[in-house]
Amino acid sequence: MPTVLVIEPDDECRARIEAVFGFMDYRVLVCARPGADEVRVVVEGDAAPGVVLVGPGALVAGGEGGLAELAALFPDARVIVTGVEEAPAGSPDVAVVPFPLKLEHLKEALGGQREAPRAAGGQARDGGGLVGEGRSMMGVRRMIEQVAGSEATVLVLGESGTGKEVAARTIHALSPRRHRPFVPVNCGAIPAELLESELFGHEKGAFTGAISARRGRFEIAEGGTLFLDEIGDMPLAMQVKLLRVLQERSYERVGSNKSLRADVRIIAATHNDLEQGIAAGRFREDLYYRLNVFPMNMPPLRERTEDLPHLITTLAERIEAEGRGSVRLHERAVRALMGYGWPGNVRELANLIERLAILHPYGVVDVPELPERFRAHLGEDIPDLPESEAGTAAMGVAAGVGHHLPADGLDLKEYINQLEYTLIKQALDEVDGVVARAAKRLGLGRTTLVEKMRKHGIRRPEDVTDF
Asked: Which of 407, 353, 347 lies closest to 165 in space, CA to CA?
């Protein structure tokens, strides 16, 4: 998801801005007070925002000079000012939109601006996120709604690629701490000797290479949520120190004896069986019970294949919205994928859709076009469609079954033209370019098809005889 940083001191005004960006499927970071130091605290530990919106109250409180400072802090971001009639004199290149915000004005100001991929410190995108209306995902949503408003420690369990971080971010977004930072840490990706400094920070000279004091993730997450991913890979020595923080709600930087207060909510996640880890001596039992206050299991994709069509639709729409191409899947292909085991879960599905968008841009992918591993379980059998569904399945609309209007609408004329182009190309490819046979497949007269081909600039191979 693209990220927007909203700077606005007024709670009501800020909530209205958040609602508009939320509707546009942006992830929203909030800074209630204007000023470079406050902004750094909010953004530190997260990806740089692709969009910065300065609300009317922030412009009054921070002054016009703050815009230049913001542009310097986020040189790749689109800076938008709202609540004024024109950009302040001498300000950097900013867009001005009226307040209250309207979608059409905001889209024009954004100009297709999208966030760059997350930096290495962030987690890989899950892709489909919590998309799905099946029983298992509805259960996950209910649990998130129940626990979000509390301060309970949450332990998210599930295989890699099932969306554990997405669930954690959703809990944070629905919690009273949503206006403070969400800080993720992958405990398995940081060397054991650096993990203590990463979590608690260090003082200047605390160890070789500590040339200046540095805040840890606990300090960065102050007032917000600290997400400890792959907690099962944390070394035993660090487990002892983390347990102390959870019990006493205080810690010290490396090289300091000054205690710092830990006002953070902990959400942990792992793909490991922690009870087996306890039996093997790899994980502390007392820490397990501290973390396991509210356990939540993320179902693997193979157990919720009823969500697969909706996931495919969502992933294809995101790729299209980000300007990275587009692809449609024939319903036969969707049915074939529903029989695949999905060891990589939603992350594997996201990679497949991106790959298909590169290999078959603006095309309709049927079973033979799927990579071999995704159709190996079929053998020689290609799933057939009931006769009543065959016509609508050929449409390949929205990368799967069903028709879903994007939240921000679409250009219907352009969409229909693109769909017509795709289906004509597919029909011609299937009959080796013979126009008369393609016209028959499409239920058109030959002359009508030739006119449509001319309209779309489609040329058949010159060496094909039309008969």
From this structure: 347
Cβ contacts of 389 within 8 Å, gap of 6 or more: 331
- Maximum alpha-carbon separation in the chain: 88
Distance CA 333, CA 346 (A): 17
Encode pLDDT of 434-451 as tens digits. Answer: 888 888 888 887 877 887
CA distances to 150, 221, 283 from 266, rounded to whole Å, are: 12, 10, 18
Instruction: Specify the amino acid at residue 238.
Output: M
Specify the 3-state DSSP secondary structure of 226. Answer: strand
CA-based end-to-end distance of the chain: 50
In the predicted structure, residue 365 carries a pLDDT above the cut 50: yes
Residues 42-71 as b or e (16 or more Cβ within 10 Å = b) = bbebbbbbbbbbbbbbbbebbeeebbebbb
Query: What distance in Å separates the CA atoms of residue 42 and residue 284, rounded to the nearest whole number?
Result: 33
Strands 250-252 and 259-261: antiparallel
Asked if 128 contacts 351 with a C-beta cutoff of 8 angstroms, the reply is no
How far is 27 from 17, CA to CA, in rounded Å?
Answer: 12
Q: Are 52 and 5 a contacting pair, CB within 8 Å?
A: yes
Residues 6+ apart with CB under 8 A from 344: 160, 161, 351
- Of residues 27, 31, 23, the one with CA closest to residue 3: 27
Q: How many angstroms separate the CA atoms of 201 and 212, rounded?
A: 11
Structure tokens, 89: 């004199």
Beta strands in 399-445 (DSSP E): none
- Cα 215–216–221 angle (5° rounding)? 100
Q: If you ran DSSP here, which 8-state letter would residue 308 be given? A: H
pLDDT tens-digit series, residues 101-111:
777 778 778 86
Residue 377 CB-half CA count within 13 A: 11
